[in-house]
Design brief:
The structure holds two protein chains of two kinds. Chain A contains six helices and seven strands, in the order H-H-E-E-E-H-E-H-E-H-E-E-H. By secondary structure, chain A is an alpha/beta fold. Chain B is mostly helical.
Chain lengths: 197, 605
């Protein structure tokens, strides 16, 4: 009787141990699976997968009164800068950007000013010397912030969009950069033109 | 200042609400909140629950409430939204339902602003209940203001620029005047005001009527803008890439993270706001659909769908209903015989399945193991209790399993309701956010709690039956179950030590939470070994096992009340009285039952 009882008890214990083992195994299996799933997510890092945004087309007029559209420069890398003559950081970086434009004649530099007063823009350009009249430099006015605010969601100055030759936005510089004439920026500009199409 | 900001909400016109809009698409729009992307529906429910304790505002759904808050703030501030249990603190008129509008709350808080300012300089630990309530209301009002102003730059304003100024600056009247429109002219208007101040000083009494109008207009716009700039809660604009931080419309403007893509998205919200204001069903449906589809590309669509399912389906409430039915079935079984046992077991099983579905949904939505917060631990332990109850019933077929499963889960889910308001399914603190340890240590410990509670409940049943002079089973089942409870709690505690060693650099630090876990283990070891060695007799053994509920309650909730140690993420307040009452009740009940059994034994002898 006692032997039978002990045997039954032993069977019950074995069953419990099997159940426990299964539970622990399933926890471990879940953990293994879950860690694997997370690694997978990590592997396809969203940043690497990002589809570059299209630059929105716009039209404006140069200070010389010539109409232009962003789409006219398809196939060329573009540096699109929003600035104003009353914006101190813009004033600092403007000549540096012109120097960069001179070094990169195949890249188009578009400067859109938020000044309301055209004479203020002209006065400012005059101070910049010959670099402001390079063939690849276009200076226009963004009246009423229609391009900056409505198309590019830009409210603060200066802000600069780096647009590749397929007219996709490859980068954005918020505020002024102190490196416009440095090697890193030069590399970014070169890469813009070289981006695979 | 606050009064001024409050009155600025009146600068927005009230829209006419003709027919109810369809919020189906609106509810699906993804938003980033508390570290994860969730549907608007969840976001709305979390805030509404925080303000008034419910998932809806009368007959108004959470989504409809959120839409009104965002797009029609002037109307929204008049709704009795805030549940204020002690209105006398703010000199608000007593009201049967205790709901007050922001239009009532804001001026009342303004009167307490000095008291609140000095209160904020003191340590929260020393606050009285009244002070805590005041601080809570202040915090709620700040969150609400942020929501109200989320789109303050897009919404048409009730004021227009002074006529002469509009003419001079050629401000178009084709579009409704918004803060967004104002920003096109802001610099020139500010220059104008500066010129006036230069000419005539800062006293407006010296200005002409026209100058006064310009200065007042510029001032109002500036206040509106500055107030809006702090609105960071509504993170609806996805970052550049799928894993990036999302931005609120105002934060996007401030941070310079705008892009053509975000410009198009903000324009879509502008259209949505216009459709809401005009109560234009067609445009509303179209814009909300487009917005939900656009942002869904940056979120996980299945997760959004599952979360909406979770919000609308309330599987846990359904399972509670089944547990209640199971308990009623058990009562009928006791009163009217065997035929009621199977229906009761089926109800318990159906409730259990819905309970499991709840937990599985949460795992899928949060992408982590099911237990990360106190609320979740209660849900999980309740689930374990039900599973164990069903298994016991399947083996014993005498109603014990149904009783232990239904009573323990109902009690636990009832307790969980007190923590449900804080359950926002938020991301866990860094130290907890590890799936390995959540899936091993935390689950082991909580499974252990579940077994412990079942052991305690069965011991109670044993004591009650014996006290009533009824037949009782032998102790084998309770001993086996307690051994399993010991295994889980012991392994869980050791795993916790290893985790602590990895996270905090020490295996054991006599932290209250660690001591609590150890207390359960030591209690079980003591009682089991005492019984095996013959030092603890049968009645004492069962009484000690019944008292396991007290030990578990202290380890589970009690240690969190101490607010000491490294487990700060688990600290709670406000349950001390309930916990004390529970412990006292249990001690009294077990003591009385033991006394009664002893009396019976003596009488029998």
């Amino acid at each position: 009787m006692l032997a039978h009882h002990t045997k039954a008890k032993g069977r019950g214990m074995t069953k419990n141990l099997i159940l426990l083992g299964m539970l622990l195994a399933s926890i471990l299996a879940y953990t293994w699976y879950d860690n694997g799933a997370h690694q997978k997510i990590g592997a396809e890092t969203p940043r690497q997968q990002t589809v570059l945004q299209e630059a929105r087309n716009f039209s404006s007029t140069t200070m010389a009164g010539k109409k232009f559209e962003l789409s006219h420069f398809k196939g060329k890398a573009i540096v699109l800068n929003f600035w104003a003559s009353w914006c101190a950081p813009c004033v600092i970086e403007f000549p540096q950007m012109l120097t960069l434009a001179k070094k990169n004649p195949d890249t188009v530099f578009i400067f859109l000013s938020q000044d309301d007063d055209l004479t203020a823009i002209n006065r400012f350009i005059k101070k910049q010397g010959p670099n402001a009249h390079l063939n690849n430099v276009i200076i226009g006015q963004d009246k009423g912030m229609k391009i900056a605010q409505d198309l590019y969601n830009t409210y603060k100055l200066p802000e600069t969009f780096l647009i590749d030759s397929d007219h996709r936005i490859a980068g954005k510089i918020i505020g002024n950069s102190d490196d416009w004439t440095g090697p890193d920026m030069q590399k970014r500009i070169t890469d813009l033109a070289l981006r695979p199409r | 200042m606050m009064r001024l900001l409050f009155f600025l909400f009146l600068l927005f016109p009230v829209s006419a609400h003709a027919a109810e809009l369809d919020y189906n698409n609106f509810s699906k729009i993804p938003v980033q909140h508390e570290g994860r992307v969730k549907p608007f529906d969840s976001f709305a429910r979390i805030f509404l629950r925080g303000f008034n304790g419910h998932d809806s505002l009368g007959s108004m759904s959470a989504d409809a409430w959120l839409a009104e808050t965002l797009f029609d703030p002037a109307q929204a501030i008049e709704r009795p939204l805030f549940r204020i249990l002690r209105p006398e603190l703010l000199n608000l008129p007593p009201r049967e339902k205790k709901y007050y509008s922001y239009a009532e709350l804001a001026p009342a808080l303004q009167q307490k602003s000095e008291a609140l300012q000095s209160l904020m300089k003191t340590d929260e630990k020393f606050w009285s209940e009244d002070q805590r309530e005041l601080a809570r209301l202040k915090e709620l009002s700040i969150s609400y203001e942020q929501l109200l102003r989320s789109f303050s730059f897009l919404l048409p304003l009730n004021i227009e620029p002074p006529h002469a100024l509009a003419k001079e600056l050629k401000i178009t009247e084709e579009r409704p005047f918004t803060l967004q429109e104002y920003s096109r002219y802001e610099r020139r208007i500010e220059e104008k005001v500066r010129a006036i101040v230069r000419r005539k000083g800062e006293d407006p009494a010296l200005y002409t009527q026209e100058e006064q109008a310009v200065a007042r207009f510029a001032f109002n716009m500036q206040i509106l803008r500055e107030a809006g700039e702090n609105s960071l809660l509504l993170r609806i604009v996805p970052g550049q890439s799928a894993g990036d931080e999302w931005f609120s419309p105002w934060a996007l403007r401030q941070s310079g993270q705008g892009s053509p893509q975000s410009a198009a998205y903000i324009n879509l919200w502008q259209e949505m706001a216009n459709a809401y204001i005009a109560q234009d069903q067609k445009n509303w449906n179209e814009t909300t659909k487009r917005a939900s589809e656009y942002a869904a590309a940056f979120a996980s669509k299945p997760k959004i769908t599952l979360e909406l399912l979770y919000n609308n389906w309330h599987p846990l409430t359904l399972s509670m209903g089944f547990y209640l039915l199971a308990f009623l079935g058990l009562v009928l079984y006791t009163l009217h015989g065997k035929s009621w046992r199977v229906p009761a077991l089926l109800c318990l099983s159906a409730g259990g399945l819905l309970h499991i579905a709840t937990i599985v949904l949460r795992i899928l939505i949060l992408s982590r193991p099911p237990v990360g917060t106190l609320y979740e631990s209660i849900l999980f332990v309740a689930m374990i209790c039900v599973i164990v109850g069903v298994v016991i019933e399947a083996i014993k077929k005498d109603g014990t399993g149904i009783l232990s499963g239904s009573v323990s889960s109902l009690l636990l889910l009832f307790i969980a309701q007190s923590f449900a308001e804080d359950d926002t399914m938020k991301m866990l603190v860094a130290v907890l956010n590890t799936n390995f340890w959540l899936a091993t240590h935390v689950l082991c410990i909580t499974i252990g709690y579940g077994w412990c509670l079942i052991v305690s409940l069965l011991s109670h049943v044993w004591l009650v039956r014996r006290a009533m002079g009824k037949e009782t089973s032998d102790l084998t089942a309770i001993k086996t179950l307690s051994a399993i409870a010991l295994l889980f709690t012991a392994v869980g505690t050791i795993l916790g030590g290893i985790w602590a060693d990895q996270s905090w650099g020490r295996f054991w630090g006599w932290d209250p939470k660690e001591n609590g876990a150890l207390l359960i283990v030591l209690w079980l070891i003591w009682v089991l070994h005492g019984n095996i060695s013959g030092h603890i007799k049968r009645l004492a053994f069962i009484a000690a096992m019944a008292g396991l509920s007290i030990i578990v309650a202290l380890a589970w909730f009690g240690v969190n009340l101490l607010s000491v140690g490294l487990h700060s993420y688990g600290f709670i307040t406000g349950v001390a009285a309930g916990l004390g009452a529970f412990c006292a009740f249990e001690l009294l009940l077990i003591g009385l039952l033991c006394w009664r059994i002893t009396q019976r034994q003596k009488a029998a002898a």
